[in-house]
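Hi V.,

You were right to ask for the full record rather than a summary. Here it is.
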Amino acid sequence: MELQTKILDEILSSKKEIELILVNGFRMKGTIEGHDKFSIVFNSSGKQHLIFKHAISTFKR
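Predicted structure:
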């Protein structure tokens, strides 16, 4: 199993709120609802966002 998949699965199963920082500097707080090889589904302020992994800079727990 890839390290990235392992980390995302851990965050997903914990259902804890995280901060996502995108490569353009935009910050979002919310929870991960799901992920695949290229993208994640992120719930922030009651709205779902499809975010491509290449656009993510950092996860903060």
